Amino acid sequence: MFEWSDLRYFLAVARHGSTLAAGRALGVNQSTVQRRLGALERALGRDLVHRHPTGYRLTELGEALWPYAAQVEASVEAFDRQARASGDGLVGVIRLTCPEPIVARITASPLLKMFGARYPGLRVEFVMSDRYLDVARGDADIALRSGEPHDETLMGRKIADSIWAVYASASYVQRRGRPESIADLDRFEIIGFEGIMTGHRAAKWLAAVAPNATVAARNDSVLGVMLAVKSGVGVAPLPTTIADAEEGLVQVLPPVPELSRGWYLLTHPDLRRTPRIAAFFDFVVENLDVMRPILMG
Questions:
Q1: Fewer CB atoms inside 10 Å of the end CB: C or N, the chain?
Q2: CA dihedral of 135, 139, 144, 149, whole degrees rounded to 10
Q3: Which CATH class is domain 6-85?
Q4: Where are the domain boundaries for CATH 1.10.10.10 in the chain?
Q5: Which residues lie closer than 8 Å to 43 by C-beta, 6 or more apart?
């Protein structure tokens, strides 16, 4: 009988095409992925992947078993959610994932103090990462995200609007002036997005409206882009929530409709019915007058 947990490593390799990428996705080193995948193949007595210098490709057996391994993974995740939810009262930790800039705004607001006063047995713990955490797989209990939700396994509601405008530092404006329109951005230095931010709507919009602009710097996080703008090397679109509050930043172009999205509070349906998650959800909705300034400035 094979070790069930080895299926995680097989699935990661199948999804990412290499043991290096699979290790990054799972948060382990490459050798661990290779060892666990090899153990699974030895237990089955058959190869699941073809190993090539350029990556891994599933064998015919690997292709046939992949859907069944995914079903096992989904069942284990459902088991874990149900186990965490069963007997869940108004005590314990609520793991909330949200963009890093929002964490500081939440902790500086009265929201958590108000929540703690109502539910003294509950505590909110922030879970942060440079990527979207998978709520369905248990990386967090609740996600606070901007942009339309694409994960059909989650449920929730829109609680605010996410608005973006174009910013520069006061020193940059004094030295280079300010764009008069979006079409004028080509004449200015810009701060580009890279890494996990390459696919973000702001990165795509900036590339489309200012294809000939000089890229003065690039960064893979919104905070990094904002710091680059503050340093005075160029302009960039930023969320008004954090940029308007930054001393030394100037909104050089008004909010861009194409970049506007919603803020959503999301969780898995299995967790939504548990008392502690329901308590936090309902509390946020009841106190949108406190939450919206946090998200919208």
A1: N
A2: -30
A3: mainly alpha
A4: 6-85
A5: 1, 2, 3, 6
User: What is the rounded distance in angstroms from the CA atom of residue 157 to the CA atom of residue 170?
Assistant: 37
pTM of the model: 0.64
User: Could you tell me where the beta strands, DSSP code E, fall in 1-70?
Assistant: 49-52, 55-58
- The residue-averaged pLDDT of 45-55 equals 90
Token pair in block for residue 195: 């890494």
Average of per-residue pLDDT across 167-180: 96
Closest by CA position to 160, among listed 222, 229, 106, 202? 106
* Alpha carbon distance 75, 123 (integer Å): 28
* Tens digit of each residue's pLDDT (9 = 90 or more) over 110-152: 999 999 999 999 999 998 865 667 776 778 899 998 877 777 7
CATH 3.40.190.290 for domain 164-259: yes
